[in-house]
Amino acid sequence: MPDVRIASSQGKWILLTTVLGSSMALLDSTVVNVALPRIGRDLDANLAALQWTVNAYMLTLAGLILLGGSLGDRYGRRKVFVIGVVWFAGASLLCGLAPSAGVLVAARALQGVGGALLTPGSLALIQASFHADDRGRAVGLWSGFGGIGAAVGPFLGGWLVDGPGWRWVFLLNVPLALLCAPIAVRHVPESADGRTHGRFDVLGAVLGALALALVTYALIEARQGSLVVAVTAVAGLAAGVAFVQVEKRSPDPMMPLDVFKSRQFTAVNLVTLCVYAAFSGFFFLTALQLQVAVGWSPLAAGTALLPTTVLMLLFSARSGALADQIGPRIPLTAGPLLCAAGMLLMLRVGPGASYVLDVLPAVLVLGAGMVTLVAPLTATVLASVDTARAGLASGINNAAARAAGLIAVAALPLLAGMGPDAYLSASAFDDAFHRAMLLCAGALVVGSGVAFATVRPLPPGCRRPECRTHGAVTAPPLEGQRARRRIA
């Protein structure tokens, strides 16, 4: 049984280690968007290369995050976490030194592999190390400090891009890893799940990632209208079908399909796909819009989006408590509508826009909507399956959100009519950005409708989220691996 107390020196070292590790991934997911215009100009990259700069990371992270948690359970959570930290730092160094857009994209894909190892491991280390009486407080501190890191990310990213340069957005991870890894080795106890069994579902992981990669390529390159794009799209769909068949027949699947027999679980994941596709598209394009069309500096653009994270940090726990009292249906219906209203308010943002009059109202309404829906969404996911599979359900929901973001970043510029050099023209990008915000708002309205039609009250005594405070905007909270025995 874990017995580390939070007041002990070892407990403090464990918290520091896990916060540093998770902050690396959170910082990276929030700061890179701010750096994209400078990256594009410096490396002479078109819009497709900028999309791949974001998507290469999300692709490997979404495709491997479930497998990463299982590796920790089997071979040791500390060991896999440290490997993830070192891997992430090495890939970040490659990103920072990349001489071309192609090298940067490849390094970002490697970075996502490291993220898939360290992201589930940070919370799993807390759950496996701390005494049961202290675990809730430890998780609260971890999620709170991690949220602060997410809040600092856009500001820090903008300052780095304006100052030392965009390469330092990636190079910053190296000293963090040099601090994190030795502390983990010295102060964090090793733990593993002795009950894990069977083979790893490597084929399932490969097919899932391949399907996402091929579909993403087809969407990003669809402007060419070539035979290669059509063949790639068909191959991506075929890989997706093969993934489903492998998961159906595997004795130890990465994603057991029978979990979707729960109608509530399936419905909430559909809501997740809608809302996180909209969120990812919004944050990707807004960071560009504020710099390309409005003319702000990277620092100003990054800081402009800070209120969404601050609102999440301050009120996500209270939103979860309210949803416990009134049920998830109202929050999951109203939250996406509020977010849609925030994105419609972004239609006012263009050349000469005022932050106080135009940007801030939109960001505040969007943040209020995110506060309303994120905590109830996580609680509903956990409550829709057996308690023993709650961790698995959370992992699938987190991966679904990241996959939705991946597809949105690939598809939105195409659907909005952005050309390869759109980000170099203020007027062209502004027109396409407004069309994209309408599409994002439409996806949120669909998500709201699905929630209203399908979400039901939570059963009494169901498992509640351990991460009550949440500041990340790229995916719902990822519960630890303690309950995820089935996929190992």
Automatic annotation (TrEMBL):
One cellular component term from this protein's GO annotations in UniProt: plasma membrane
Gene Ontology BP terms: response to antibiotic
UniProt topology in membrane: Multi-pass membrane protein
Name of the molecule in the record: MFS transporter
NCBIfam families membership: efflux_EmrB
Compartments (UniProt record): Cell membrane
Residue span, Major facilitator superfamily (MFS) profile domain: 14-459
Organism field: Streptomyces guryensis
Parts of the chain that traverse the membrane: 12-36, 48-68, 80-99, 105-126, 138-160, 166-188, 200-220, 226-246, 267-290, 296-317, 329-347, 359-383, 395-416, 436-455
